[in-house]
Write a structure and sequence with these properties.
The protein is of the alpha/beta class. Helix content is 27%, strand content 25%. Helix 9 links the parallel strand 16 and strand 17. Helix 1 packs across helix 11, helix 2 runs parallel beside helix 6 and helix 6 crosses helix 11. It is globular.
Length: 443
């Protein structure tokens, strides 16, 4: 079969994935898209004026963003239509003192961030991106955009039983990237900092001006379509930038008068439990929602409590598609397939927060755009992962549905998703945002 151009939504996702090499770059990319659509930044340190129709966003700790369009009706009457996702992905992060030298090589000391599928980071061309904090508290985003290091596999001649006994990696000793040769006196982390600073507005700064940093390694191979008809997308960070991309599209596509207030919340630190000042367990979302309620309410009525009781939160994270080589890892009746559209994720033990009312609301949005949702629930003898859904549901009392596009190789350095699923998820979330009617069922 002849390869085809990917659908426009999928092509746009490729661009988004390549730009979001760190959570900070992902947020910066979303900010640029929002500002082109007329959204403006709000500072949490300032008072907010939020009349109906206000389109704005706030950023916390550079890696989390909440954007909103204030509805024509007070939230206490019309509720919130919310979509949540996360900007971070499992990867390798530099430790504070990253320089290592020995055995003739320069290496980097790294820490494992999140549930990394370790073996997939071997023999990859890796670059460096993130943020630097300079004297005075000024921050700069940096991205070297070139291969600077690799984590070489051990040759099979020195590990004869690797194909039968399996590859076992020690995160402390086996994942140290090779940066260069020890004989290079001008190399090492200081040289990398100098190169990073040369690419920023702080060109005159010196490596000694860098007081702290949040830097991660990433695979330099660009996002691409593949498959006999380009029906697949292969990329790093599909989990969960694909959901951030869909949420952003849905918010922008739903522009126009609506009673309910539309909100997207894109969080950092989901992959490590969300326990941070900017993660889903923080005050970020509740603070923004409370500001909107206060600005759009009068009197002493508990507007936020009323609004939350009439709202729906869509926790959008990627879903496990059935792997054809490991089909028995799925429940027989719940095997999502790439290319067949969004997945509703259910777990009665509340690892996913989906309940029947929320699932029905999402299903209705699917049907409105002629899509039949797929379903995932884990095998009874296997635990499942979790999302920001249960955290948000418990913390705010929001009725929640956990959903996601199906994918393979979750938490790999290079994951796989379906090209057609990109547009399908955008259409469903856009429908839900544009047509949301306040939930009035008892929680």
């Amino acid at each position: 079969m002849v390869a085809q151009d990917p659908p426009p939504e999928a092509a746009d996702l490729l661009t988004f994935l390549d730009a979001g090499v760190s959570p900070y770059h992902a947020v910066e990319t979303v900010k640029q898209r929002l500002e082109r659509a007329g959204y403006r930044a709000f500072d949490e340190r300032e008072r907010w004026d939020l009349p109906a129709g206000t389109r704005g966003y706030a950023v916390r700790a550079a890696g989390s963003l909440i954007a909103f369009e204030v509805g024509s009706e007070p939230p206490g009457r019309a509720g919130f239509a919310l979509i949540g996702a996360h900007t971070d992905s499992p990867n390798l992060r530099l430790k504070p003192n990253p320089d290592i030298a020995g055995s003739g090589y320069r290496q980097l000391s790294v820490e494992v961030y999140g549930g990394v599928l370790l073996s997939t980071w071997l023999d990859r061309d890796l670059s460096l991106a993130g943020r630097l904090v300079l004297k005075g508290g000024h921050s700069e985003l940096v991205d070297l955009r070139r291969s600077i290091c690799r984590i070489p596999n051990l040759a099979i001649h020195l590990n004869r039983d690797v194909n039968t006994a399996g590859l076992v990696l020690n995160a402390q000793t086996h994942l140290l990237p090779v940066l260069g040769l020890e004989a290079n006196a001008d190399g090492g982390f200081t040289a990398l900092m100098r190169e990073c600073l040369d690419q920023t507005p702080s060109r005159g700064a010196q490596p000694s001006d860098v007081l702290a940093f949040d830097l991660c390694l990433y695979d330099t191979q660009r996002a691409a379509t593949c498959g006999e008809s380009d029906e697949f997308i292969a990329s790093a960070r599909l989990d969960n930038l694909a959901s951030c991309h869909a949420a952003c599209h849905a918010l922008l596509a739903a522009h126009g008068e609506l009673g309910a207030t539309r909100v997207i919340a894109l969080y950092d630190h989901e992959e490590v439990g969300s326990q941070s000042a900017a993660g889903a367990r923080s005050s970020f979302l509740s603070s923004v929602l409370e500001r909107i309620c206060e600005a759009r309410s009068s009197g002493a009525n508990p507007a936020l409590a009323q609004a939350l009781a009439r709202s729906l939160f869509v926790s959008a994270d990627m879903a496990h598609a059935v792997h054809p080589n490991y089909a028995d890892k799925h429940d027989k009746q719940h095997r999502p397939v790439l290319g067949l559209g969004p997945v509703i994720k259910t777990n009665v033990n509340q690892s996913y927060a989906t309940d029947a009312v929320a699932a029905a609301a999402f299903t209705e949005a699917c049907r409105a755009v002629e899509i039949t949702p797929q379903h995932f629930t884990a095998r009874n003898d296997m635990p499942c992962g979790s999302t920001i859904g249960p955290i948000t549901a418990a913390r705010l009392g929001l009725r929640t549905v956990d959903v996601g596009a199906p994918m393979l190789a979750m938490h790999s350095c290079r994951e796989t998703a379906g090209s057609s699923d990109v547009g399908a998820m955008i259409r469903v979330l856009s429908q839900l945002m544009a047509r949301f009617t306040a939930l009035n069922a008892a929680i």
